[in-house]
Amino acid sequence: MSWIQENKFAAGLGGITAVAAAGLIFWGVKASGDYTAAKDEYTTAADEVEKMAQAKVYPSEANLQAKKKAVTDYEKSVGDMQKAFDKFRAPTPPNVDPAAFSDTLLKAKDVAKKAFDEVRPQATELPGEFFLGLEAYTTSPPERGATGILTYQLEALSELMANLAAAGPTKLINIHRPQLEEESGKPFDAKGKSYRALPVEVSFYGNEASLRKFVSSLDDSKAHYYVVRSIRVINEKAKAPTAADGNFETGEDEAKPEGGAAADPFGGAGGAGGFVLPGDEPAAPPADGAAPAPAGAPAAAPADAAAPAAGGDGVILQQVLGSEKLNVFLRIDIIQFLEAPVDAKKASVEAKKATVEAQKP
């Protein structure tokens, strides 16, 4: 009898142990292979990340230089534009005594009113309270801290009113000026800003020519820069003109051709070479046996016909378009270009250069 048969339990336990050990060895080898593959993958990815971190940032050198040139050109164009607006760049006038500002406002109002009164052929009708949008300061003075910016705005408003008066509107309806920060005791924060908008709303009544002339004048100023933010124009006539709105006038003084009727340049009965125009009665046919009128001969006028209108330019269609009155609303921003902030570093460099130049023999 063999040992396995005599020791079945020990043999079975040994077999199970051997199988388990083989399984453990296989699992360990497989796990080790997976770990190695994962480690290699991680190492490869880490190497790629490190390579990307050490490489030069996109774009390429050529593209980078092109981008730098574009930025430089843009900065130059912005600088050139800023120089173009330098003539409009003015500091805010110093604050003055409120009573002195009230005197200035009164004088500006008188000058503007005189300009509107002198409009011909008829003076412009002004609102009952007319103080260029500063009516609030007819009963009480402004804050002293607001008189400087109000003086600047008043100068621009005076110019606006002079231009509007020259345009000759029929009626100035209203001027509305939103309150500025300084008027309520708050300082204006100019940090990071290159300009400031001082809005004003103007409403007037006039014809198309007055509107065109006033809007055209806004870019003629040498001291102030105006921007039209919005405009609304309403025609006094809501409906389009009809044929009944046109009136014909007769040229009484013009010489009439022989026969009392205008010669037909085309010839033939009925006018226009025998054609009957809309609104005209067709000519009666010639009597039996009568010869038709020769080409170019004037048609005989009926005995009871009224005196005909003169031909050519004697009949004129009266103008029915463009003469209507308009209600106009304009929201205009008076742009105050702020003084450029002083660059301390640049100023220091310029000062050093000036010192070196002064020390040269």
Q: Any key phrases for this structure?
A:
361 residues, alpha+beta, 4-stranded antiparallel beta sheet, 7 helices, 6 strands
What features would you describe in this structure?
It comes from Luteolibacter arcticus. This is Amuc_1100 family pilus-like protein. InterPro entries: Amuc_1100-like (IPR048049). Keywords: Membrane, Transmembrane, Transmembrane helix. The chain is α+β, with helices and mostly antiparallel strands. The chain has seven helices and six strands, in the order αααααββαββββα. The strands form two sheets. A four-stranded antiparallel sheet has the order 1-2-6-3. The protein has a two-stranded antiparallel sheet with strand order 4-5. The chain is elongated and about 145 Å long. The N and C termini lie far apart (127 Å). 11% of the residues are buried.
Please render the helix and strand layout as text.
Blueprint: H1 3-6, H2 8-54, H3 61-84, H4 98-117, H5 147-167, E1 171-176, E2 195-207, H6 208-217, E3 225-235, E4 248-249, E5 316-317, E6 325-337, H7 344-359
Antiparallel strand pairs: 1-2, 2-6, 3-6, 4-5
Helix pairs in contact: 4-5, 5-6
